[in-house]
Amino acid sequence: MRRWDFVAAYLQGELEQGEVVYCHPPPGYETIGPDGKTRICRVVKPIYGMAQAGRRWQRSLFPWLTSWGFKQSHSDPCVFSCERTTDGVTQSLIIGCYVDDLF
Hints:
Helix content is 15%, strand content 29%. The protein has 103 residues and is α+β, with helices and mostly antiparallel strands.
């Protein structure tokens, strides 16, 4: 059994069309603009700490797995399987997804 931890997995997701998210600037950045108003940042990619970041990553990963021939389990939607037969030998691969880890 192998395990993969995707570094910066949530950054691989995409915000939904029309979804607009703002946040405070990170520490070290000017929080007050030259006009005296408080600055905020518009988020263009999901980031860790956003409530919807995990779901956005999932919406990128699951279609990618199915495009490679994996079938999503009916009993657990986070489990995918794929079978390939080469030279009469059938090999099975089962992948379980948990947050940003694949098992």
